[in-house]
Every structure is written in structure tokens, then in C-alpha cells.
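Task: complex structure prediction.
Instruction: return C-alpha cells for all chains below.
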Amino acid sequence: MTVKRNTWQKDAVRHALSESAGFVSAQQLHQVLHAHGSTIGLATVYRALADLLLAGDADSITSTDGQLLYRACGTSHHHHLVCRECGLTVEIDADQVEAWASGIGGANGFTDVSHTIELFGLCRGCRGL
Amino acid sequence: MTVKRNTWQKDAVRHALSESAGFVSAQQLHQVLHAHGSTIGLATVYRALADLLLAGDADSITSTDGQLLYRACGTSHHHHLVCRECGLTVEIDADQVEAWASGIGGANGFTDVSHTIELFGLCRGCRGL
DNA sequence: GACTTATTGACATTCATTATCAATAAGACT
DNA sequence: AGTCTTATTGATAATGAATGTCAATAAGTC
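Output:
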């Protein structure tokens, strides 16, 4: 049977992902890693992220322009309010929504319900241009 | 200012979409239209679908393999509960969440707040395998 | 250290979606 | 009806994220 091997590349991806706030694309992670001097390959980043998904150490959503965004998972769960102009991000917690989400899931016969909630808007600064 | 023009192509896409049950990809719609004798171009199908999205006459989700799926849609804004195994989709309406979203946005100085909410879970069928 | 083979990484490939742009036709105006 | 403006179309090229390929590398074992 195939035996998993531990490589610095996988650790690097895991670490870079946990350092990132919010959702990050595989390409962004690759760039960040290179900016920090790593020589990791793009394909390897994709493979490491796929492994993290399977292992449940990360989850993903697809952004509006169609690319997959990843997030470290297992830490505290929260959501973001993002300015669609400048990218300013405000963390929000949403206990009501958490409860609502799991309730809806159960009412429809779904289990293991996870959710992705992102709010986009125009922040004060960008509006006041 | 730009003036919208009505073409048989847009009507064809709108009609084909409303005839389709469930979610359909742009490529599938294009094939269906050609199978019915239409000579509509693929790019035009994409453009018509984009217009329908903007007009609120259709909504879309991204399938597990990354492509956009479209569906004719009523006027009301709603969200989806999707089985992460088989793709079974249940419509949910979320008045509470709508209110919560705009409230949070305003409280943080954001205007024009839009949101994306997706719930993923395991449906009864897939769980019982 | 030697060996097996999982993993890497540079590159090619796939494929959905978008951009390009000349040709067409919708709507307005006479 | 004819003319004119330009929004729209459609064939094709281009983009770009994601995956496949495969020789070279290195993790874990003995």
C-alpha cells in the first residue's frame, strides 16, 4: 500500500495556508511561497492543497471568477466582509447564522453541513472617493 | 448611452434555459440549441447567460468540477443547499440571513452589500449508501 | 550506505470561459 | 421603404486555472 511521506513542501503549503487570512487561491499561495524564497513548484502546491482537502485540514469555495479558494480549517470559524474595491476585510462572527445553517441542513435531511458565507460591499473609504 | 437590442438569439437562450430541468452548463445549452437546428454561436450563449444573470432571470452555481451551471430563476433571491456527493440541490430562502447580511454591512460602514451563501452537506441518499 | 518508490517540478495539455474584430442586423429617424 | 448608427453576433484566438506526464529527486526502511 502507498505510504505517505512527509516533505518540507507539504509543510510549507500547510504553514502558508494557516498564515493566510481568509481564502487564498493556489496561485496566490505559490506566489507567497516564492516571495519567501521557496522554490516549490506550482503543481506541488495544487497537490498539497488537494491532500489537505481530503484530510479535512482545509476547505474550499469557488470565487466569483471561477477559481478555487482554500482556507485552513479547524481553527475558529468566522466570516469576512470584504470591500469589492480595495479588498479591505473585516472579520465578523455570526453565531445566529451558524445556528441557522445547521438548522436548515437538518430540516432537509442533510448531515455534515458546512457553509461558506462571504459578504461583499463598498467600504467607507472607497465610497467617499 | 447603450441601448439593448432584442435578438432571436437571446430569446432562444432564455427559452432553452427555461425548458431545462435543473442546472445546465453553457456548453450543454449550446449543444441543445444546435440539436434543435439553431446556428447560435457558443460565445453568444455565454453572453446571453451573463445578461440573464445580471437581469436576475437566472442564477448560477459552480459545479464540483469547476464549471458554471445556470438555471432559470424566479425573481426571489435565494440560496442553495448542495449535496457534496451527488450534487442534489435544495432551494432555501433565507429572509433572516438577508436581513442579517445587510445589517452587518451597515454596522461596519459598508454599502451595496451583496453576499454569497452556500451550504454543503451530505444528503439522505448519499449517507445511506 | 543502499534501495525502493512516493513525491517533486518543469513543462505540456486540457478545457471552460473571455477577448477580438469584421460582418450582420436591430432600432431609430426620415 | 430606405438610410444610418451601432449593438450584437459568431468564428476563432487567447487566457488561465487545473491536471497529466515523466525523468529526477529524496523520504523512509533495512
